[in-house]
């Protein structure tokens, strides 16, 4: 799909910086840029992948607008597989805006839609849909490991495994088709065994991919982690220690935190979406009561709960109430202020929660944070995080399609065992093949494509 429209957008974040980049893609990218670009070189005839120094000049009055570097990448050797020009201007809102407005004023260049550059790369066969979706994961990565996982997907590691799966199913479909066309040469029992064997092999491979799904989703989105406890036990101090910045106000006055404060932090390569909640207690203060209700909502939605207890004081009635509420939830108990004499009965805490989930902590002295990281890693990653050679499945859409494809293959095996005609069994196998194709974009609706790329930023 080679479009006849030329598009442009700012590819860098808006704001002050060293440089800003405007990306132009389409059949007229070079010609339209040449109308504004004055340089010693003729960029219309310039070879691909060359950089040129010059100025952007307003053709209406000859005024020099900006001093830039212009990069030419001719299709198909570009990200979109079309002719692409990138204009590197001085960083800043005014400079880049003036150049973009001048480009759009020519009439044949329009502003790009969100994700349209990546969409063109997909439609032009430069990348498949799974690789395209990995681009947005690269942009939104919250940790080095999440970035590594997204990079592997962008390079096609997941796509290659899905394509291998589909290839095996095509061979199975071809075998079934031959037996449908030439039933006189078919040995039913051998064919049924072959269908079961190849379908089970495909299910096993899907299971291997799904095994990484929960960890991949965590690396992609982070663990929603609620910090809870009664007032003045050190919740906000813990948030500040993890973020390494004074994000939350810390005082000796109970009820200082009135709302849920949200921050992203990476702890030992594990992305945490931290929610510092208002101290949960009975209160007559109207504003604090609203904060407590929001804290309870965050508690319900959390993947992980850090229950902070002041270890230097005996357990309070509010502590006991919280412990009742937290039963059966993924909880790590943090006995804070252990730099002071400990008054909490750790044996009692261990009787209510798993002993491995109790961490002695002194936020003031930053002691125990390494142990907290170790416990989180054990709860969610079995003790280790492997992003080296492992292909993580992190996209919710991919996970759903893998489950659907596996169910279709299970249906095919059950139909075979039930003696259902082979042409009906073929329908289930073909459905699985098509569902896997949706992952990489081989069989996907236009509306879904539009929905996926609408999530991208404007210049990507």
From TrEMBL:
The keyword Transcription regulation does not apply. Its EC number is 3.6.-.-. It is an enzyme of class 3 (hydrolase). GO terms for molecular function: GTP binding; GTPase activity; identical protein binding; metal ion binding. Binds 1 potassium ion per subunit. One of its GO terms (cellular component) is cytosol. Gene3D superfamilies: P-loop containing nucleotide triphosphate hydrolases, Probable tRNA modification gtpase trme, domain 1, tRNA modification GTPase MnmE domain 2. Coiled coil: none annotated. One of its GO terms (biological process) is tRNA methylation. Residues 222-381 form the TrmE-type G domain. GTP binds at residues 232-237, 251-257, 276-279. It is found in: Cytoplasm. (6S)-5-formyl-5,6,7,8-tetrahydrofolate binds at residues 23, 86, 126, 460. Mg(2+) binds at residues 236, 257. K(+) binds at residues 232, 251, 253, 256. NCBIfam families: mnmE_trmE_thdF, PRK05291.1-3, small_GTP. Belongs to the TRAFAC class TrmE-Era-EngA-EngB-Septin-like GTPase superfamily. TrmE GTPase family. Exhibits a very high intrinsic GTPase hydrolysis rate. Involved in the addition of a carboxymethylaminomethyl (cmnm) group at the wobble position (U34) of certain tRNAs, forming tRNA-cmnm(5)s(2)U34. Homodimer. Heterotetramer of two MnmE and two MnmG subunits. This is tRNA modification GTPase MnmE. It comes from Paenibacillus methanolicus. The gene is mnmE.
